[in-house]
């Protein structure tokens, strides 16, 4: 029996929802564990309803074979997860920087609950990640995420063959760049901390009776807070530049 016009429209909406909904699960700021699932679902339905109009003629028809239908939906879900993972991998730089800062400042033992990862995290990592999410919405950078999601249909049309190799290469490159940027954010503190440790070590050799540990801990923490306060703004700028570069490569998956 041929499909009616209403069936075609519903299928097109659900096909777009498969990509949009799976992407929203991982997108920074939207796919966080503390965001209500119903709110994510309503946002995904709203975005899908907006996109299905312009994309309607380019969307494939509903396959008659169940296996072909399952493969089509699975491909859309995979593309959505890829887009969300690519955007979230950029913010991994903040967690890397936070972990390095925590170990260098002596705050590694002060683990607290990380709402972004729903697990234990460090204080500097939580501070940097939450600051990054606040700036994501304050600067309207979340619009770039949604624009990249809509533009993905140009380079990755629904029903087309997935460039798995290019997708894996992009994720690998973004993760590598995120790790490098995380180290760059923490590099000033690492350098200052190394110099402070050398100075305290020499002082301990010159004055063996002096209790260096009681001076080192508060001084190390004070230097860490001061260094982070002076340098973390530039580090966040580099993170957002990486986010913009990664989103620009998403439509083509390269």
Architecture overview:
The chain has 254 residues and is mainly alpha-helical. It has one domain. The chain is 74% helix and 3% strand. It has helices at residues 5-24, 37-55, 66-90, 92-105, 123-138, 142-155, 164-206, 212-249, and strands spanning 111-114, 119-122. It has a two-stranded antiparallel sheet with strand order 1-2. α1 (5-24) packs parallel to α3 (66-90) and α3 crosses α8.
| CA-CA gap between termini | 41 Å
Q: Give the CA-based shape.
A: elongated
Number of domains: 1
> What's the total count of β strands?
2
Task: Give a short summary of the structure.
The protein is mostly helical. It is built from eight helices and two strands. It has a two-stranded antiparallel sheet.
List keywords for this structure.
two-stranded antiparallel sheet, 2 strands, single chain, 74% helix, elongated, 254 residues, 8 helices
Question: Mind sketching the topology for me?
Answer:
Elements: H1 5-24, H2 37-55, H3 66-90, H4 92-105, E1 111-114, E2 119-122, H5 123-138, H6 142-155, H7 164-206, H8 212-249
Antiparallel strand pairs: 1-2
Helix pairs in contact: 1-2, 1-3, 3-7, 3-8, 4-5, 4-7, 4-8, 7-8
